[in-house]
Design a protein that fits this description.
With about 190 residues, the chain is an all-alpha fold. The protein has one domain: Hypothetical protein af1432 (Orthogonal Bundle). It is built from 11 helices and no strands. Helix 2 runs antiparallel to helix 3 and helix 2 crosses helix 8. The chain is globular, with a radius of gyration of 16 Å. About 35% of the residues are buried. The chain binds 2'-deoxyguanosine-5'-diphosphate (DGI) and fe (iii) ion (3 copies). 2'-deoxyguanosine-5'-diphosphate binds next to helix 5 and helix 10.
Length: about 190
C-alpha cells in the first residue's frame, strides 16, 4: 500500500489546507482514543487521517458515482455533507487503493454513525468531533466524556448533530436518528 507520506501528498491534491490540517488532527485524536480504549491504533489513525478525503470531490463526480454505482437514489436528496462519508469511500478505494474493510467502514460511518457501529467506527466519529480545534459546548462535553466512554461521547455527538440539524430545519439522514435510537437503547 501507499506510505503515509504518499497518502499525505494525495490528500494535499484533494483538500484545501484547512481541511487537510483537520484530517491530520483527527488522525492524532483517533490514535489517542485507540490507545485509551485498547483498539488497533494504526487502523484508527488511518481512518482518522482519510475520513474527509472526499469532502471536496466535485458535486458532478458524486452525482455520476451515485447514479452509476450501486447507491440508493435517496442519496440524491442530500449533499456533500452526507456523501463524503457514505460515498467517499468509493474515491478512497479507487484513488488510493485502500482495501481494509474496517478502515473503509469507519470512514463510511464517520458522519452518520450506524446502529451497529464498532468501537473503531466510534473512534473516527468521535475524533472528528473532539479534535483540538472543536470548541462548541457539546464538543467540549464529548471530549470530556471520551476520557471514559466512547459510547457516551458518540451519543453526545449525535445529540449535538441532531439538535443542530433540527434547529436549522435541515434534513436529518434517517441513519443518524437510527444510530441515536440504537445507542440510547443500549444505554438505558
Ligand atoms: O466533515 P466534517 O465537517 O469534519 O464533519 P462531519 O463529517 O461529521 O460532518 C458534519 C456535517 O454533516 C455537519 O454540517 C452536519 C452534517 N450532518 C451530520 N449528520 C447529518 C448531517 N447532515 C444532514 N443533512 N443529515 C444528517 O443526518
Ligand atoms: Fe466528515
Ligand atoms: Fe462527525
Ligand atoms: Fe472531519
Amino acid at each position: 500500500g501507499l506510505s503515509r507520506t504518499e497518502i499525505l501528498t494525495r490528500m494535499h491534491d484533494r483538500l484545501d489546507q484547512s481541511r487537510f490540517d483537520h484530517c491530520v488532527r483527527v488522525e492524532a485524536a483517533a490514535r489517542d482514543l485507540a490507545v485509551r480504549f485498547g483498539l488497533d491504533v494504526d487502523r484508527a489513525g488511518l481512518a482518522g487521517l482519510l475520513h474527509d478525503y472526499a469532502k471536496q470531490v466535485p458535486v458532478a463526480d458524486y452525482l455520476r458515482v451515485i447514479q452509476r454505482e450501486d447507491y440508493s437514489d435517496k442519496l440524491l436528496r442530500y449533499n456533500r455533507g452526507i456523501w463524503h462519508g457514505v460515498v467517499g469511500t468509493y474515491f478512497i478505494r479507487r484513488e488510493l487503493g485502500i482495501d481494509d474493510a474496517q478502515v473503509l467502514q469507519a470512514i463510511e460511518r464517520h458522519t452518520t454513525g450506524n446502529p451497529h457501529m464498532t468501537p473503531l467506527d466510534m473512534t473516527t466519529f468521535v475524533a472528528d468531533y473532539i479534535e483540538p480545534l472543536r470548541h462548541l459546548p457539546m464538543q467540549v462535553q464529548a471530549r470530556r466524556l471520551a476520557q471514559h466512554s466512547l459510547t457516551a461521547a458518540t451519543i453526545a455527538e449525535l445529540q449535538g448533530t441532531l439538535t443542530y440539524l433540527i434547529g436549522r430545519h435541515q434534513l436529518v439522514y434517517p441513519l443518524t436518528l437510527k444510530t441515536f435510537n440504537a445507542l440510547v437503547t443500549k444505554e438505558n
